């Protein structure tokens, strides 16, 4: 009997390790989506830079999170022996891998906002600093119960802040940090002529679409595998993810008037918004959540570019920052039993938790990027910006006619 119990335990541990490993690989693949979404959106002379940034940011983010960020969030380090670390089939190591791919999404989000005019090395340093300190501070606050914030919300409002897969913890935080960086950088040269917006057309719509599809597919690992163990897997999460994606597609197509850029970002807006409550909502609630997010992205992207003159190249603040906020609030609305959800949420907790994430992200981002700007400068010279980041930084163009 003891042998049977031991075998069952080993099988469970190995299955959980494989489950979360597959999730980590799917989210890792999403970084190719970030890369191609940016490559397709920026102008031709900045395509190489987009690819190099995403890869480099991932590598430095992994180091920052391994040595500092994971410690800040979960009070766990990896300085034990390999024998200790490999206990339980190495589940804790693979859990780190999974959560690290989330952390590395923060610089990937920021990259799209600051494209075409940011220096390379100073921004890389800033990204690593964000992943080491700013992001894990809020991550630990929400997902590890640090500093009693969640306990206070539960005692005061009857439920803790609920963010199953990171609408606020990952996306809103990344979007609001990006906004700080974009404001400090300023607009690209030639983007505005007086009050008139000068269109900078995407360089490659097929690449843009490819990036959106890679992200969309990987998102099912992002959400479903956030259960982190095989016994926690839920088909509800998968279908809610699907319905929010569909809502984003339809809304962005209609509101965006068939624009391919809006259409391919629409499903991403819906997916950002459903992360928080994907384990609680009814699929119809998820559809509505995604639809609102898709329309919100189109409206806000147009508003920020035309009226506010905020040069957010890929629209990462409306897409991740604002749609992530909406997702945090939507979990407190459509997660309620009265609206077909599973319950166990409080709208006030969702509101306060979302505001906390925004404040920590924007203030933290502003501090980091201001400090780096004052010491090393984060804006390319006007000449380099005119030549393009590919030649100015990497000394090679994305394609050759030879």
UniProtKB/TrEMBL annotation:
Transmembrane stretches, start-end: 18-39, 51-73, 93-111, 123-144, 164-185, 197-221, 233-255, 262-280, 286-304, 316-336, 348-372
Record membrane topology: Multi-pass membrane protein
Alphabetical keyword list: Ammonia transport, Membrane, Transmembrane, Transmembrane helix, Transport
UniProt cross-references to PROSITE patterns, sorted A to Z: AMMONIUM_TRANSP (PS01219)
InterPro entries with a match to the protein in the record: Ammonium/urea_transptr, Ammonium_transpt_CS, NH4_transpt_AmtB-like_dom
Sequence ranges assigned to domain Ammonium transporter AmtB-like in this UniProt record: 19-395
Protein family according to the UniProt entry: Belongs to the ammonia transporter channel (TC 1.A.11.2) family.
Name assigned to this protein: Ammonium transporter
């Amino acid at each position: 009997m003891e042998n049977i119990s031991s075998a069952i335990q080993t099988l469970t541990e190995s299955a959980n390790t494989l489950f979360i490993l597959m999730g980590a690989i799917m989210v890792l693949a999403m970084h190719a989506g970030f890369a191609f979404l940016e490559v397709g959106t920026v102008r031709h002379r900045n395509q190489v830079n987009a690819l190099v940034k995403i890869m480099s940011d991932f590598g430095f983010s992994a180091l920052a999170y391994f040595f500092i960020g994971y410690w800040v969030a979960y009070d766990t380090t990896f300085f034990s022996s390999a024998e200790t670390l490999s206990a339980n089939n190495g589940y804790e190591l693979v859990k780190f891998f999974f959560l690290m791919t989330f952390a590395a999404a923060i610089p990937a989000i920021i990259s799209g906002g600051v494209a075409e005019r940011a220096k390379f090395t100073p921004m890389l340093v800033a990204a690593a600093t964000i992943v080491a300190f700013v992001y894990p501070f809020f991550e630990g606050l929400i997902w590890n119960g640090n500093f009693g914030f969640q306990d206070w919300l539960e005692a005061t409002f009857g439920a803790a802040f609920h963010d199953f897969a990171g609408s606020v913890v990952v996306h809103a935080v990344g979007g609001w940090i990006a906004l700080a960086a974009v404001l400090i950088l300023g607009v690209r040269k030639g983007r505005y002529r007086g009050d008139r917006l000068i269109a900078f057309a995407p360089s490659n719509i097929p690449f843009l679409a490819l990036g959106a599809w890679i992200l969309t597919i990987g998102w099912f690992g992002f959400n479903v595998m956030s259960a982190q163990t095989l016994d926690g897997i839920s088909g509800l999460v998968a279908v809610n993810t699907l319905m929010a994606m569909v809502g984003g597609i339809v809304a962005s197509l209609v509101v965006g008037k068939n624009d391919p850029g809006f259409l391919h970002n629409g499903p991403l807006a819906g997916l950002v918004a459903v992360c928080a409550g994907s384990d609680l909502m009814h699929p119809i609630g998820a559809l509505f959540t995604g639809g609102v997010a898709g329309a919100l992205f189109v409206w806000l992207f147009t508003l920020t570019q035309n009226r506010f003159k905020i040069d957010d190249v890929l629209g990462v603040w409306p897409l991740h920052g604002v749609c992530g906020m909406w997702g945090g609030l939507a979990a407190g609305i459509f997660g309620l039993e009265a609206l077909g959800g599973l319950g166990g949420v409080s709208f006030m907790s969702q509101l306060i938790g979302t505001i906390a994430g925004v404040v920590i992200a924007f203030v933290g981002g502003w501090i980091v990027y201001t400090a780096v700007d004052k010491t090393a400068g984060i804006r390319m010279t006007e000449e380099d910006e005119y030549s393009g980041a590919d030649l100015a930084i990497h000394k090679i163009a994305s394609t050759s006619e030879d």
